[in-house]
Amino acid sequence: MVRQIEFTHPEPPPLTGRVWPVFLPFAGCPHRCLFCAQDKQTGHAPASRDQADLQAVFDTLAQDLESALDAGRAPCELAFYGGTFSALPAPWPETFLALAARYRERGLITRVRCSTRPDCVAPETLAALRALGLDMVELGIQSFDDRALAASGRGYTGKTALRGCESVREAGLALGIQLLPGLPGDHPGLFQHDAALAADLAPEIARLYPCLVVRSTPLATLWERGQYTPWSLDQAKAELAAALTLLWARSVRVIRLGLAPEDTLEANILAGPWHPALGQSVRGLALLSLVRDAVRRLGRSPSRLDVPRRHQGELLGHSRELAAHYQALGLDRATIRYVDTPYFVLT
Ligand code: SF4
Prior knowledge:
- This is Radical SAM domain protein.
- The chain is an alpha/beta fold and 347 residues long.
- The chain has 13 helices and 13 strands.
- A seven-stranded parallel beta sheet has the order 2-3-4-5-6-7-9. It has a four-stranded mixed beta sheet with strand order 1-13-11-12, with helices on one face.
């Protein structure tokens, strides 16, 4: 009989270093996507394709970088988010990257990343951006499924999404993949298939944002007409936990689960799987599946579970929501111990 099972948490070690986000809401986007509310997600008013807005972002950033340098701030990674960076009107991509390069030379910036669409990453564009100092591209893939992409008006196919990821890697840039499960056109199994395809592409990081209905978006109109039903919170938790387990097993760092709680976002969510502690719940569920698997391998009711202390906050999910599941396995306050070892032990 197996006396005890030891296992480690499968999450890859986090990347170290602080990220300095620069928001360019909707800048460079060929159109507004059905679900997108970058202004409310980020709490930043949109910078349109108009150069004057980008000039204002640039001027503020230049000032802030100089002040940070004067103040002796620790080096960090600069990240251009919220729009389609690789499709910004000329000369903005090169202007922003030249600014970043100046502060890289002076030791403040260590790395530069941007977010963009998979249909805006032609090899020559990526080569040019890399030569100017770009290190990483996060692609807003959302889905690899033609039906979901068409129903969501993304304007590209699953093949383009895959090709976009390959182009980023072939350009020698680090790849990030953002998925948006529960879009119009969703169907059972789609998200797990998307997560598996994403894992196959071996991105450095992934972000998983279940689709929300946000005020003043075209998706809100569909939802009001009864033509779109978002995922429930329970479905989102279960689907995300399964995808997280899969991505961890393939050494992909999942750096975001659900949109970050911003006041401007929360006030404008009309429907969908939103909870400020969604990430904690999902990580807890993923961990529960690992413990269940260990109990199966143990082959009997466990008498004790040692949990590395750094996982204490997620073991029982949010507000002890998973306590009953652990009790069903025979594990409770008396039999779960938090320890200073890096591995779990089930006896
Ligand atoms: S989802 Fe991406 S491409 Fe679409 S409008 Fe929003 S930022 Fe632009």
